[in-house]
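Deliverable D4.2, example record:
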Amino acid sequence: MNTATIKLYDLFRKELNLDESKAKEFVEAIDRTISEEIRQDKTEIATKDFVKKEIVDAKNDMIKWFVGLFFALAMMIIGLYIKG
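Output generated by the structure prediction step:
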């Protein structure tokens, strides 16, 4: 237990007149809840960063394909124009 957890435990035990086991359970439940929230927030941030990176990569790939197709189409049109 860290100092904040110990202070919460003492507060629940002394001020709210809870017995030691109930105060300890309550503090542990609060600690687990906070830990889960922090873990979930980190996961969401990592997911958002991953999605942003994937979007940027997809845009770059699309631009490459458009440029390549444009040049291929331009060469076909020029070839047809010269032949005819």
